[in-house]
Amino acid sequence: QVQLVESGGGLVQPGGSLRLSCAASGIIFRLYAMGWYRQAPGKQRELVATITRGGNTNFADSVKGRFTISRDNAKNTVSLQMNSLKAEDTAVYYCNANYIPTTSDYWGQGTQVTVSS
């Protein structure tokens, strides 16, 4: 059974930082591309950042220079460090695991991030 469990969300003031983590189980983690997506109320889910199994990263333009993504294959975790947070970063953040050869695609349950003063 595949599980992706996010943690680290919460309420933070504008300009603050949060670190999200996603713990994966039930998959061969090192083979999967991992990503973070977010969905704000009334909006579609959008890509935030991805990291390939080789460590290459990709970011949405809106978070470049503020967010970083990293993975620890020994611990089966992927993290999203979010700095200089803005109100528009408020959303539910979802962890994703993707294995292209079999089109396997898994999602976590999401964690709420609220940026507000």
Assign the structural class, choosing from mainly alpha, mainly beta, alpha/beta, alpha+beta, or little secondary structure.
mainly beta
Number of helices: 0
Outline type: globular
Our Rg estimate from Cα atoms comes to 13 Å
The largest β sheet comes out as: 7 strands, mixed
- Strand segment count: 11
Low-pLDDT regions: none
User: Considering DSSP H and I runs of 4 or more, what fraction of the residues is helical?
Assistant: under 10%
Helix-strand string: EEEEEEEEEEE
How far is it from the N-terminal to the C-terminal residue, by CA? 40 Å
What do the pLDDT scores average to?
97
What portion of residues belong to β-strands? Answer: over 45%
Describe this structure in words.
The protein is mostly beta strands and 117 residues long. Helices cover 0% and strands 53% of the residues. The chain contains no helices and 11 strands. Strands 2, 4, 5, 6, 9, 10 and 11 form a 7-stranded mixed beta sheet that branches. A 4-stranded antiparallel beta sheet has the order 1-3-8-7, with no helix packed on it. It is globular, with a radius of gyration of 13 Å. The mean pLDDT is 97.
